Structures are given as C-alpha cells and as structure tokens.
Amino acid sequence: MAWNAWGDPAHARQLEDSQRQLLVDTLGVSAAAPPRVERSALRLPPGALPEPARAALTAVVGEEHLRTDDAARILHLGGKSTPDLLRRREGDAHHAPDAVVTPGSHEQVQALVEICAEHAVAVVPFGGGTSVVGGVEPAREGHPALISLDLRRLDALVELDEESGTATLQAGLRTPEAEELLGAEGYTLGHFPQSFEFATIGGYAATRSAGQSSAGYGRFDAMVTALKVATPRGTLDLGRAPATAAGPDLRQLFLGSEGTLGVLTEVTVRVRRAPAERRDEAWSFPSFAAGTAAVRALAQRGLLPTAIRVSDETETFVNAVIAGSAAPEGCLSVVSHEGDPDEVARRGEAVRQVLTAHEGSLLDDEVAAAWRRSRFSGPYMRDALLDTGVLTETLETATSWAGLAALRETVTATLTAHLRTATSTPVVFCHLSHAYPSGGSLYFTVAADAGEEPRSRWRAAKQAAGDAIAAAGGSITHHHAVGQDHRPWMEAEVGPLGVEVLAAVKRTLDPAGIMNPGKLIPEAATQPPAVS
Amino acid sequence: MAWNAWGDPAHARQLEDSQRQLLVDTLGVSAAAPPRVERSALRLPPGALPEPARAALTAVVGEEHLRTDDAARILHLGGKSTPDLLRRREGDAHHAPDAVVTPGSHEQVQALVEICAEHAVAVVPFGGGTSVVGGVEPAREGHPALISLDLRRLDALVELDEESGTATLQAGLRTPEAEELLGAEGYTLGHFPQSFEFATIGGYAATRSAGQSSAGYGRFDAMVTALKVATPRGTLDLGRAPATAAGPDLRQLFLGSEGTLGVLTEVTVRVRRAPAERRDEAWSFPSFAAGTAAVRALAQRGLLPTAIRVSDETETFVNAVIAGSAAPEGCLSVVSHEGDPDEVARRGEAVRQVLTAHEGSLLDDEVAAAWRRSRFSGPYMRDALLDTGVLTETLETATSWAGLAALRETVTATLTAHLRTATSTPVVFCHLSHAYPSGGSLYFTVAADAGEEPRSRWRAAKQAAGDAIAAAGGSITHHHAVGQDHRPWMEAEVGPLGVEVLAAVKRTLDPAGIMNPGKLIPEAATQPPAVS
Predict the structure, then answer these.
(1) Based on the number of CB atoms within 10 Å of its own CB, is B133 exposed (0-12), middle (13-18) or buried (19 or more)?
(2) To 10 degrees, the CA torsion angle through A483, A489, A491, A495?
(3) CA A350, CA B340: separation in Å to the nearest integer?
(4) Quick one: chain A helix, strand, coil %, rounded to 5?
(5) Residue B436 annotated as catalytic
(6) Is the separation of the CB atoms in A126 and A148 below 8 Å?
(7) Nearest-neighbour CA in chain A from B236: distance (Å)
(8) Which pLDDT does position B452 carry in this prediction?
(9) ipTM for this prediction
(10) A529 exposure class (CB count in 10 Å sphere: 0-12, 13-18, 19+)
(11) Structural domain includes residue B531
(12) CATH code (residue B257)
C-alpha cells in the first residue's frame, strides 16, 4: 500500500491527454496540481512511547513485532480519504503513531490492550488502513502516547463449519487471502467493496461494510454470526445461535464499533458455495427514477440479483468517458447474477421481466464487462485526478424509498453550490449502490477544480452535505462508518440519549478511554459524568 | 383473556374420554388434577400505591385510566407459563400490581415513567400478557409499589408508507387488529406466533418474537426498521435508514429489552402485499435427521418457503392422536407458500425438488389443513390437559446446524430423566420450528403426570434443561425471551462482561431501576458498581 496514495503503486493510473483536456474544459480546472512531497522529506516527531510501556508491550509480542522506525510509522499515518491523501502529499506526519505493534494471537491482543490501559497509551486498531472517514487516524486526544495495533498477523481461517455454512476468520485477514483460503474448500464470502484488495475481515465488521454484491450476499454485518472482542476489561465471545431472543443483541454493539470499545480479533461469518456460474448484464433506464423504481420492485418482491446498481445520467456519462467508450442513453444499471446455472437462469429471467416492465433496455454485454474490469479502480483514478489538479471525493447515505429522490436532490445541490468557484463548475453525480425492501443507499462522487486549499473547501462542502443529509432524514453513512469525519452527526443519528448509551458502554469496557480516541462517540459524551 | 388459563374462555377445550384414557395408559397420570380455585376465592393485598404517586399518575391519564380494583389487578397477575397458571389455580394473588394504568399516547407513557422514577414505583409494561417466561411478573424487587402499564389504548396504525413498504404501529396493537388495519389497505405483517390472538406489536419487538411464518416473513426483530422508546431519562427515536454504518445499531438494544430499559411505544415494521395465493403441504420424512437436512438445504440455498417445520416421530404421533387421525409414518413436516400465484408455483416446485431429494414424501392435503386449523390451539389444549392431571409445558432453543442433533438429544434426555416418577413416564417431543442459513431452533413439549407439586418438579426439570442447553452451546431462548425464568442463564449467554454492558445501559436509561424489575439482566449486575 502506497503511503500517500491508494493501493499498489504498480497499479497507479495516469490520465490520457484527451481526458485531461476534457477536465479543463468541463470543470475549469487550473493547471496547478496539489503538491506531492517525497517520503524522504517527511519529518516525524520522536516516538513518545514511555519505556515501561514499551518494555511491557515488547514482552508480549517480542522485539520484532514492536516497531518504532519511520518506515512503519509512515505506513500508519491514517486512512485514505481525499483529505488524508492531501495532507500526506503536503508532507504532514506530525501525528505519526509512536509505535506499530503486530500481535500474533487474540491472547496477545488482550494482553496489549490491558497494558495500554494501565499506561494510558492510546490504541488505534489497524486493519487494511482503508478508512475514508478518519477511522484509523492516530488521534491522541490527550493521551501521552499512541500505538497503531496492526492486525496483519491475525490472518488465519480458524474453522470452516461446512454443515452450518460458517467460517471463523481472524480479524486481520485481507479479502483476497480470505477468498483464497475459502476458495480452496469450495466456498466464498462474497464481499467485494471497492477496498477489496486491502481491507480486512475485522475492519468490515467494525465498520459495517457493504460490498458490491450486497444484494445477493448481504451486508457484512448481516453475515456475522459470532464475534470475539478484546477489550481493556476483558474478552467477550458473542453469538451462540443464528438467532436468539436472549435479550438485546450485543453483537450489534461491536459491529460498527470502529475499535472504540475493543479490538475484534475473530469473526464468524456465513459463507456460500462458490458460484458455478455468473452472468453480468448492463441495462439502460430512461431516468434515475425509473431505474430506482425497478430496483425497489425487485427488493420488495425478494428478487434482488447478486449485485445491482443504477447510475444517474451524469455518472453514466462520466464513467463512459473514463472507459473511453460511448455513453449509453439515460441511466446505466449493472446487474449480476451468481449461483447454480439453474438458479442464475431462473432468477435472471424473473429479474429481466421486472426490469423490462420498468422501462429498462438490455445493453451490449461489453458494457457490463467494462464495469467488472474497472470495479476496484475508482480509488486509483482519484490519485490520477489529484495529480491533474482535480479534487475528487465520495460520500454516501441511505434512506427510505419514499425519501430517496429528495435526499439525492438536496445533497447534489448542496455539494454543487459549495464546490463551485468563480472560474469552475464542479461535477456531482451518484448511483443507487445498495437496496433493501424499505429503502436504498446513494453513493455520491464529486469532481472539482482543486484550486487553492482543496482540504478546507472540501471540509466546508462535506459539512454542508452532512447537514443536508441529517435534515432530510438520511443516515450520515450507509457503509463508510463514522470515524472522525461523521462524528459531528452522531447526535442527529441516534439522539443525545443514544449518544449517552454509547458512552456508557464505552466507559464500561474502556474506562481509561484508550480505544481509538476521537472516533464515533461525540466527545462530550465520553467524559465520565459528574458524580451525583 | 381468562385470568387463570389461556385465551378466550369460549374457546376452552376438553379432552375426549378416549384421549384421557390414553394419557392414563401412556403417561401413568394419576386421577387427581391440580386444584383450580374460583376467582372469588382470591385474596389480594391492599393496593400500596402512595397517594402522591397516584395523584401525579392520575393527572396524566385521568381517573378512568388508573384502576386499582380487584378485577383489573387480577388480569395483570403475570404471564401464561404453566407455573403461572398453576399458581393462579392455587389462588396465589399476593403479588398483584397496586394499580393498572392505561395511557393513551407516547407522551403520556413518557410522563408516567418519569413520575414512577421520581416516586420509586416499579413499572411493568404489559401488552397481551402472554409471556411464558415471567416477563410481565409484577416483581417489586424492593420497590414500595408497582404499576402494570397496560398499553391497550396505544392501538393505532400511525402511518403506512406504501412506497417504502413500512408501517408505523403503536405498541399496544394486537395482531388480529393490526392485520385488519393493514389488510384494509391490502397489506399484511405476516407475523403468526401461537400467541397471535392476544400478543401485541410492542411485545413482539420487546421479546424478539418469531412467528410460524418466520421463514418467509422473517423474525419480528428483522422486520423492524424504527422504534420509539419512552425511558425514565427521556425518549429515543431510533432508525433513520434501512441499513446504516453509523456505529452500533442501538435498535438492537431495545429489541429484546423486555421493558427493562423503557417502554416501546411505536414500532415501524416492514409490511408486504397481502398474498393472493397460499398453498399448504404436508410431507413425511423417514427421520428427523432427514427432515432437518432438507430444511437446512432450503435455508442455505435461499429457498425457504413461507413456513416450514418438522416434527420428530413422537410429536408426529401425539399430534395425530390430538387431531383424532391416523399418524403418518416417520416425521411430519408442514410447508406453506404464500405470494403471487406465479411465485407460489415457481417456489413450490423448487422446494418440492429439494424435499423429494431428501427422502420427503408429499402427504394428503388434509394433513396440512388440520395443522392450519389447530395452529393456535396448543395453549388451549394445555389447560384441558392440566384439568386432566397432566403437566404440560414447552421450552425452546437454537443452535448451529452442526450442533442441532446433540442439542436435541441432551435436552430430551434431561427433561425425560427429571420428569420421570416411580409410576409414570413423561413424553418429550420436539419440532424444528425456525430455520436460518447457519442453524435452526428446536421447540420442545413435555407431558407428564402432574402428581404432587408439579411446579417444583417442573422448576427442577427446567433448571436441568437450561443447564444442558448452555453446556451444549445453544441459546437459552430462540423466541420466548428471558423474563425471570431464563435470567440465570444470561451470563452463560453473553458472558459476565456482556451482562455488565447490559447493566450499564440500564443504569444510563433507568437509574432508579424501576423498569420491569427482576427481568432479563442478572441481579448482581443491576446494582451500581462501588465507587473506585
């Protein structure tokens, strides 16, 4: 993983001259791209891990698994939002963690968090480091030192229960390796978010990730049957049955907990037989409303394919430009079916009937093939755009079907208004990315002239968009989680009393407040209440 | 609802002489049935509601909605477990609530719980009163007075959102009335537990109920998209989207909270178009293992019908005796499909292929029709059996598919051993009642000679069965909830740290500990921690 860009440097992309010219013409981008300093120019503060803490942590993991060198610290500077990358391009490394610790077992993680609690050392659990919401930012929040707890060595398939159709996976396992381990036994997890190449099992659970095939395989949180969590107060093992009426579902407190309550070390998830067949289709709808209505009909009839998405007119056009192909009329929808050949045929036919009834037209197979080839490439393209002086970023939300059109309108208008300048017009587009019987999620992308101070311009646009989402009744995030960036809207999301509940849970499990400080739970609520 | 038996007295059942003789022959029941005192023989303690509390509560709801008469108090003596009914038959009413309060709005409920917190008056939220786990027991647990908060006046359909396929229902609405309100608009909830006639929307959510059609419509908790809760610390409104990554899912703390954290007053649930067609089928499998394997195959292939259950050999025989018909060979399975005619036909055919491949044989339609006629009658039959000197009760659990056979074996053996006497042999049978991709639930019924002290004999058997379930890794309850009766196993279910989390949430929302005392959360954990 590149330290100052997305992904594998070998896969970095460059724009063609014609694409660059199109950006200048349509967005009015200026020639100047944001700076991009060399890694050698970074100046890290000296590590601040106190010696007694260092000695105790080393006693658990061994010298080679507690690193304080610049190379390790630079790779744990935070996540991969556009502001994260812009800061790194500027050479900002003042917040580097004091050490990177790589435990090899649940028991080691448990021992580490207890030691850190004793020494008031903040702990940032670190999986693939792909957070786009500041979820792995090394934020000390008053603690004298901070470690990045990198779970990469927890990469085993612990157990495959073929009868129950579940697998227990260690939290640090990345998706390609998880698919390889499961694939060797004939199974798949079926979780394919854009961060697929790097993100980890624990990260998916901790952030309630949703993949491109969530319509068929389910959101990650819906796949989880059991969890093991190491908290400063001890270990929790949750999940004794596929479903239970034994009180509140405590697994649901740790799904989405983003490392603020403890470290997920093992996750038991549903797995499926690797599909024998896959069929991708591309469809066109005359409008975004028609495409959305079609997806709603499928979701409410229990007929969702394995994957389905609908781009609005602008996204349909932009994606065609990126792919160097002609844009289809209207709004592009990609549909994918996986399963036994019989099932793919049966479901495929039922879905085609519904899509056709909603004014859908089947397009050439090559359009769907182009989507599949490029489906993980968006973040690489962002780096190429930044190099060209284009600020590009995404945000996403979800609401009921009844609220979707108004939500799209207000977010689009808000982002456009805030990113416009005297000399440039931004492009804002979106797709319906995930669908449920009662609603769906919208995934927005913006491209604008980076100009001067792109970080503060984005911050203002993001603030306004978040407020618009909250006012429209949407959720502040459907699958990117809260981290630092969405924390200001948590009170709108669950109410002040809901925030108090979260803070009470945190105080119970993490009384010293060392677990991933500054994330998820609004600050005021994490202070212990005055004694009454 | 009868005060000392299940349901509508007009529907009370009596056994035929031949059935009674069969029970004497097979179970060795003695002639003597447990006592059954008249209601007029009950002696209630004087109401203990302090005058300031009474005045304040009355100011909220009005005189006619705060009742302290015997008739009202007797109808709120507790739930409908067999021990509950035996106690009432014995004339035990010492624990009657001091008053029954029937609020008419969320705002009134909010005001009532705040007043009760101020006056240290315990509050038992009361819906249909159908708990079989002591969930609505008026347990004071040190509080000087207790009210039963009967939600029957909260019986409105607040909103139907046809586009999103959701309905907002008030918590005190009973299922037949909910189906009537939704049915008038062409919709159904599809939730049909045995308690269907009496149980309420709020009760289903508070206990994570599962109905007979859960395979098709989902468990009740899975239908819920939003909740409104009145707690002593204020109101929570949770649920802004069909799915979200905005932190832990706090709805999941209130689903299954059984009134210990607050009062659910409104629930937004998924609704479906009322099905145009229904097809019931009865199948026979050569063994319970074969039937279970068939259901597992359907669940894992995403092919579950609307309803499916498999009885073991003994239950198959007993049900035939009760129905006065010949028992089919092996194990009876009932399968039901609902939906559009096309969908019923298509899914019906796919399911038939799987069942046939698992050694299933389709039986005469009349067998399925008999199941549908009698599917809510089990609790009425229990009263007739008690009148005949037969102790009958149920319990249920769930686990993974891999653990199901061993769980069934240990529970059956434990119950049989503990209910056997020198002169009688109990009958213990079960069915697979609910299925998921990763496992299923087992619903056990026992019938034994009531003999002397049936309550203490059942208590010992239940204790041993609960320990056996915990040791086998099952959940202590799949859909009956925790209440008083399963509270001893909560620590086994979620661990000591999980119990601490629940207690911390309760202290935050209900610092005075007035909400449904003695339920769900183990006692030690509900005490405030010593100041450190």
Answers:
(1) buried
(2) -120
(3) 13
(4) 40, 20, 40
(5) no
(6) yes
(7) 7
(8) 85
(9) 0.96
(10) exposed
(11) no
(12) 3.30.465.10
| Greatest extent of chain A over all pairs of C-alpha atoms, in Å | 69
State which of B150, B183, B211 marks the end of a domain.
Answer: B150
Quick one: B73 and B91 in the same domain? yes
Q: Say if the Cβ atoms of A245 and B400 lie within 8 Å.
A: no
Is residue A529 predicted with pLDDT exceeding 80? Answer: no
What is the least distance, in Å, from the CA of A49 to any CA of chain B?
Answer: 27
**A124-147 confidence digits (pLDDT tens):** 999 999 999 999 999 999 999 999
Please tell me the predicted confidence (pLDDT) of residue A532.
Answer: 38
The answer to whether A57 and A67 have CB atoms below 8 angstroms apart is no
Please indicate, yes or no, if residue B512 is contained in any of the structural domains: yes
The residue among B222, B245, B273 that closes a domain is B273
For residue B218, tell me if it sits in a domain.
Answer: yes
Per the structure, the count of domains in chain A is: 4
3-state secondary structure of A527: coil
Range of the domain at A351: 277-374
CATH of the domain at B345: 3.30.70.3450
- Has residue B341 got a pLDDT over 70? yes
Report the residue from B237, B438, B509 with minimal CB separation from A242. B438
**Is A310 found in the same domain as A290?**
yes
Q: How confident is the model at residue A451 (pLDDT cuts 50, 70, 90)?
A: confident
Report if pTM > 0.90. yes
- Answer yes or no: is A420 within a domain: no
CA proximity to A251, closest of A222, A214, A294, A280: A222
Instruction: Flag whether pLDDT at A354 surpasses 70.
Output: yes
In this structure, the answer to whether residues B172 and B238 fall within a common structural domain is: yes
Summary mean pLDDT of chain B: 95
- Model confidence at A527: pLDDT above 70: no
| A319 vs A256: CA distance, rounded Å | 31
**B403 → chain A, closest CA residue:** A164
